[in-house]
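Hi V.,

You were right to ask for the full record rather than a summary. Here it is.
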Amino acid sequence: MKLSWVQIIRLGLVQMCLGAVVVLTTSTLNRLMVVELALPAVLPGLLVALHYGIQITRPNWGFRSDTRGNRTAFVIGGMAALALGAFLAAVAVVLFPAGFGAGLALSVVAYALIGVGVGASGTSLLALLATATEPRRRAAAATITWLMMILGIAVTAGTVGALLDPYTPAALLEIVGVVTGGAVVLTVLAVWGIERRVVAEREVEALPFRAGMAEVWAERKARVFTLFIFLSMTAYFMQELILEPYAGLVFGFAPGESTQLSGAQNGGVFVGMLLVGIAATGLRWGSLRMWVMAGCGGSALSLMAIAGLGQTGGALVPAVVSLGFFNGMFAVAAIGSMMALAGQGRDAREGTRMGLWGAAQALAAGFGGLVGAAAADGLRLVMPVEDAFGAVFVAEAGIFALSALIAARVIEGRGGRRLPDAQLIPGE
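Predicted structure:
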């Protein structure tokens, strides 16, 4: 039995909860530490990098959910760990004025818990979707879950921001407690009973993690798709920290205009995701491979346009909206492809594969943002500012183009060629 639309939406509620809790740490607590507490901006940056780094454990969580046959427990347990970590991170913000050491120590523990929670819950959730979603519904399922995550991020950020004005430590703890507690309760209600109805019960495997991981890594398709995820997501995140500074330094955008630029980009992401969900599922038009390649190619062209506009002084907003549109198209089609490929190869390893690709995505998120910012800063020392930023955007476009070529080889198209489910080739 496969997931119904109602069950897919219920699992999307879990993704919405993940987005709602994580945005507290990346937005609200980040702002409080830098502005209200006057702490160095690098501190929250390093803490967020810590939670990304811990997500290298995603393959382990996926393997555990594969071999123990109960993904629901990992989804709920991971959400509980995430909620606890977010609440402790808020407590740490309250502690900082009294003692920097105590606040920092608690923050490290809190963000480590956040990384564990996102890894365990998010990986197991995607593995459950990959296992139990009909192939023709995968693009729509990816669209639904990711749009619901964006909804959770947007609603939480806006609501918490309004309720926290004026800021008081008591109000912060109360609001974060309500959001994190509500996320756990909603997750339990959303996921309860779904796995039992749609997935046949699996026997527990007494297999070490390294052996299970070696089985997956021996699959050529899994390895090549891991490279695709890392490269494409590195390109996806390279502009994250430099696009708004580029708008301000080169185009003279005010802070408010830069924020609106980011909103316009996210609007493009939303439309791109929605288009793929409707076209690939409702209209049955195009394969996931086609949409991934179109998204990567369109993102590359949009980045080239953004780089060129720095030289000509043309309108930046339409090019940024175009980048968001193709980014959204690529992202949701890549998630759908991930769900499809997770079930190919060695049986009962969907979670391990999703964990491997989730770890590649998490590492790329941290690596891409850092490389993009560092490259822009370094190049600005030796060339004009518009050329420095433009060079980074062109490099990012090149990575997207390379990703499209890899996608053409590894993602299955309708009647097209794809990499075989082969084991390691001698001499590779």
